[in-house]
Structures are given as C-alpha cells and as structure tokens.
Amino acid sequence: MSRREYKTINRRLQRGRAASAKEGKYPCSRPPYGYERVRIPNDKGWTLKPKDDEAEIVRYIFKLYTRGIEQDDGSFRSVGTRVIGVTLDKMGISPPSTASYWTESTVRHILRNPIYIGKVRWNTKKRKKRVKDGVVSYERTSPPPEEQICVDGLHPPIVSVELFNAAQEILQRRGTAPIHTRTDMQNPFAGILYCGKCGRSMIRRSTASSSVLLCVNRSCDNVMSKFSIVEERILQSLQEWLNDYRLEWADGKSPDEQSSIEVKRRAISKAEKELDTLTKQLSRTHDLLEQGVYDTDTFLGRSRAINERMVAAHKSIEELTAALALDEQRAASRVNIIPQVEHLLSVYDKLPDAQSKNELLKGILERIEYVKDKPSPRKGPFDNFELVLYPKLPSAKK
Ligand SMILES: [Zn+2]
Predict the structure, then answer these.
(1) What is the DSSP secondary-structure string of 228-258?
(2) Each residue of 27-63: b (16+ CB within 10 Å) or e?
(3) Which end of the chain is more exposed for a tag (fewer CB within 10 A), N or C?
(4) Distance between CA 313 and CA 157 in Å, rounded?
(5) Across the beta sheet with 225-226, what order do the strands follow?
C-alpha cells in the first residue's frame, strides 16, 4: 500500500471515529481501564461496560486521591499519585495492559479521564512527531476547541461528578507537571546511565533538600545514591580514563595494535602477490593447452586447482582488509575522543543546564552502568557503588 493511500484511508477512518464519538459511542479500539468494549445492540459501533473488579479499583483510586489513606488512628493522610501506585502494587492489583507496576502517570491518567463520569472525548490531544538529532519524540498538543469533542457517552459512569471534580481541583492545586519529565530534564545522564542490575534507566529525583539517582524500576534492589556523588565519580573516571589514554594511545595506536596492523598489512600484500602469481599460472595453463602440451583433462585439473587457490586468496584479502579498516577506525576514533573528553572536562561545570551536559556526554559515552548493593554508611564512604563506563568506540567484531 502506498503511503498516500494509507494517509487517505487513515483520514477517512479518523472522520468515521469522530462521527461515532459525537454520537457518544466509544471510538477507540482499546477500552480504558475499568471498562470493556461491547457492541451497541441494534446499531453500528461500540460502547463501554464497567468491569466490576477494575471499576472498583478506579473508584478506590479516586477515593484515595481525594480523601487520603486511612491511618492506624483513624485519621486520613493525603497522598499523591506515586503513593497510590505503590499502594496498589502492594495490594497485588495488576496495572492496566502489560505494565509491570502502577506508575504515577497511569494513576494521573485515570484521575484526569472524564470517561469515568460517562463522557466521551475525541481529538482533545494530538500527537506530533518530532525528530531531533535522530531521536524521535512525540509532543502532545491540543487542537483548537472547535475541533475537540467532549459529549455525554452512551456508557454508564464509574465515579460521581462530585468525586471527579474534587480530584481535578487537587490535581490543579498540586501542579500538573509530571515528576518524571521534570526530573529527566534535570538529569545530564539521561539516556546514558543505566541500572547494572535490571538494565532500566537510572532517573534523577530531586526535592528541596536533596537530589538522588535511582533505578526507575521500583522492584529493583539497586540502591540509590546522592546525585552529586555519582556525578563527581563519573567525571573522575573520565579524567582517569583520559590520563591512561594519553599515555597509552599517544598516537592513537598502542604498540600491540600497531604490530597487529603491521601483521595484517604484510599478510594482505603476501596474499596479493600470491594472487598475482596464480593469475600468471592460470594464463600459462591456457598457453600450454593452446600449444598442445596439455590435453583437455590436464588443463581442467590444473586450472581448477589454481582457481580454488585464487578464491581462497581473494577471501583472505577481503577479511584482512575489513579487519585492518576496523583497527584503523578504532585508532582514529581514539584520536578524536581525547580532545572531546578534554573539552567536556574543562567546560562541564560551566555549562548552563543538564541538557548541554547531556549532549556532550552522549558524544563520548555509549552507556554507564551503576550498581550499588548496600546503602552508604551514615558517615560515608558514600561512593560504595560501582560504575562501568562504555566509551563510544567502534568495537572489534566477535
Ligand atoms: Zn534496576
């Protein structure tokens, strides 16, 4: 199917969905948490029917958010979306779809969704694709109000309008910026620093008094650290790495690597010479056949043997050339990476924000892994973690 054709069909589909949303039908293919999608009797389209167990959880989330969690003394403590997520996880309630735990954004999404008071929304948010530095991201924008649809749906509500409005008030009062995005923008190691235990991202979380790096996976036992300590150690490791490199790779090549490059070069020229000799031999067998010295059988036997050796020589030249190119590429990128690391270390503290630090770090580091098994002792040392730095160098095959 051509791209244009797909776009046309997709647009037609979108129009069909908008029309069905206007009639209060449910226009999407996946039902929201708390509901199942059911066919409308004697009509086209779909609507929603509460799923008892999930609807119960939706009501519970709204109650927790608006009233708080009951304490042992019978009083209520107000809680945010994070604590609600943890509470649901502890109760063993499975999160929507395939997620492994309840995230803050899942909880917030439920609290904000007017589908639970029986409304149907359509076209209230649009996803706009953005490509920057080869990274695809999506921006959510709101279409103009006249293009947005929010009508009474055909489906029954799960929570009361009063409860829903109470939740909206708290959401607004507490600020709507999701904590994850806010912390990630503060994190110069975003997309670089990973948990060495479970492989997920390490995120930065800040409060007024402290800032920590922790594994995004709540069920992971990797222990968090103060952001400033990890940052300091990463820069220190880069400095040490740079010093070693300057010594060992002054011209971009170690003695070992230099000799391995020489060996490969010699092997290539040897194979080329052999190929040359074989070509001559092959042409001589032709001559000998023409002169009647060789009969056809002898000629075929000889030329086949020579051909086989030529194929082998070709193959080894190819392999050696590829290996040599990789060696030289690695040497070259080492030469390039030294000034890049030097630059990073000299300007890092003066850079205005996490974003610019992140860009420089991404230029020289593929990945950093962080592992910490025990909390730091009260009086230190605070760097009882292990960091593994993976610099951006072409790796050897195999
Ligand atoms: Zn982890």
Answers:
(1) HHHHHHHHHHHHHHHHHHHHHTTTS--HHHH
(2) beeebbbbbeeeeeeeeebbbbebbeebbebbbebbe
(3) C
(4) 76
(5) 202-206, 211-215, 225-226
What is the tens place of the pLDDT at every residue in 97-133? Answer: 777 889 888 999 999 999 999 999 887 777 676 766 6
d(CA 194, ligand 1 centre) in Å = 8
> In whole angstroms, what is the distance from residue 368 CA to residue 390 CA?
6
What are the Cα distances from residue 193, in Å, to 178, 326, 369, 385? 21, 27, 6, 13
Dihedral over Cα of 351, 354, 355, 360: its sign: positive
Residue 103 near residue 84, CB atoms below 8 Å: no
Helix axes 104-112, 81-90, angle to 10 degrees: 110
Grouping H, G, I as helix, E, B as strand and the rest as coil, residue 23 is coil
pLDDT range class, residue 277, cuts 50, 70, 90: very high
- Proportion of the chain in helix, strand, coil states, percent, rounded to 5: 50, 15, 30
Distance 204 CA to ligand 1 centre (A): 13
Where along the chain do its domains lie?
3-176, 178-398
State whether residue 336 is helix, strand or coil. helix
Q: Measured in angstroms, how far is the CA atom of residue 84 from the centroid of ligand 1?
A: 21
**What is the CA(190)–ligand 1 centre distance, in A?**
15
Instruction: For the full predicted model, state whether its pTM sits above 0.85.
Output: no
CA of 201 to the centre of ligand 1 (A): 7
Structure tokens at 78: 């107000």
Distances (CA, A) of 64 to 87, 145, 309: 10, 32, 79
Question: Is the domain covering 3-176 a CATH 3.90.1750.20 domain?
Answer: yes
Rounded to the nearest angstrom, the distance between the alpha carbon of 93 and the centre of ligand 1 is 21
What is residue 201's DSSP assignment? B
